[in-house]
């Protein structure tokens, strides 16, 4: 069984756990009876809901899984979205990639789905733009969900210093 001790050697919790991981943003992931939750720095179970799996808190949110679906939990114990997803990624630069029915989109830290269009694949935001793939072609969206270009490309890199390498008909442009 696992628990925590402080710098004075005192146990944090009266409860012992099947597994426990390091603290992140004031919460530590704990496992008990094949379910996951968090413990706070006062030694209390942080939230009422137990999950099938949880990730560490990063940027104010933890990925949580229940019944094979994914969502995000904030540090107040509230789910970010009423929608549960097939897969979710960590928040980076204010957005996380979510997947539903084989298509991808971004969700904001306010729980807003970024684009009306769902994509086949996408990359994280770099310099305010994220690569998105639809029907085998790449483009970019900004943090408002608007496409950067009317042109779709065969391949594309990531923005660096205001530019991105793209390929169209076997030719590279940057």
Question: What features would you highlight for this structure?
Answer:
single chain, 174 residues, mainly beta, three-stranded antiparallel beta sheet, 15 strands, 0% helix, 39% strand, elongated
Provide the residue-averaged pLDDT. 96
Low-confidence stretches: none
Major β-sheet strand ordering: 1-2-3
Roughly what percent helix?
Answer: under 10%
Main sheet: strands, sense, barrel = 3 strands, antiparallel
Q: Determine the N-to-C terminus distance.
A: 56 Å
Rg is 20 Å
Computed structural class? mainly beta
Approximately what portion of the residues adopt beta-strand conformation? 35-45%
Question: What general form does the structure show?
Answer: elongated
Total strands: the figure is 15
How many helices? The count is: 0
Question: How are helices and strands ordered from N to C?
Answer: EEEEEEEEEEEEEEE
